[in-house]
Amino acid sequence: MAVMRSNFVQYLIAFLLLTAAPLRGWAQEDSEASADATEEPAADPAEEVPPSPKHLLTDMPESAEGVETTFVFPDNPKQFLTSGEEAEILCGFYNGGDVPLNVTRLAGSINSPMDFRVYVQNWTSPMYNTVVPPDTQGSFSIKIKPDLNLQARDFIVALTAFYESDGEMYSSTFFNGTVYVVESAGFLDMETFFMYFFIVAVVGLIAGAIFKALQSAGVVKKKSKARKVETGTRGAVDENEWLKGTAARPASGTPKKRVMRKK
């Protein structure tokens, strides 16, 4: 009896050990799964958005040694711009260095006169990729067109030439100055129209108020209307037509002489 009881206890212990092993594995798997769920997923390198390329006029490189630039407004010696109209500016580029320089393109901007960092409009020329040898001068052009909605005022215009040599980028600003932008001929700004309309209306109201004040003060008198006298539709001769043939007015013709009869 004691042997059977001991065997039963051994079988029970073995059964508990066999059933506890899978339970421990399941619990470990559940804990690992929950830990994986709490971890943030790693970012996919393919989904990362590449940074946008910088504009040419941002963080411009320095000028190369020996480079000299000049400018010409061929169609506008007075150096003003017209809104909505295209203007061409020429750039003279002299390479005074020892190595050839590859001029890639020209770029420019119109900026606020109050703060140069405020860009109003940008322009870029087509790609040139023209090599200027040492001790040689080249000529390049850029066409700019101010926006039609720009108000007539002063702006700062900056134009720059970009070039390279042996993989090194350079830039030289050939124009940087104040330019007056005028409105296009025939273009009427609505703001200007309403401004003039408002001025005319205010002047009219002030003139009317002054005139009424002078009338009330007796300085200006109202003109009295002349009374019209009604007359008949016929002349004075026609009005006496009813007297024809009477003693008051004989009939028309040669009046007869009265003959005195002797008694």
TrEMBL record:
Gene Ontology CC entries for this record: endoplasmic reticulum membrane
Principal localisation: endoplasmic reticulum
Membrane topology recorded in Swiss-Prot or TrEMBL: Single-pass type I membrane protein
InterPro entries: TRAP_alpha
Annotated localization: Endoplasmic reticulum membrane
Signal peptide: 1-27
Keyword Transferase applies: no
Composition bias type Acidic residues, residue spans: 29-47
Region spans: Disordered: 29-59
Family: Belongs to the TRAP-alpha family.
Assembly with partners or alone: Heterotetramer of TRAP-alpha, TRAP-beta, TRAP-delta and TRAP-gamma.
Domain text: Shows a remarkable charge distribution with the N-terminus being highly negatively charged, and the cytoplasmic C-terminus positively charged.
Job of this protein: TRAP proteins are part of a complex whose function is to bind calcium to the ER membrane and thereby regulate the retention of ER resident proteins. May be involved in the recycling of the translocation apparatus after completion of the translocation process or may function as a membrane-bound chaperone facilitating folding of translocated proteins.
Name by which UniProt lists this protein: Translocon-associated protein subunit alpha
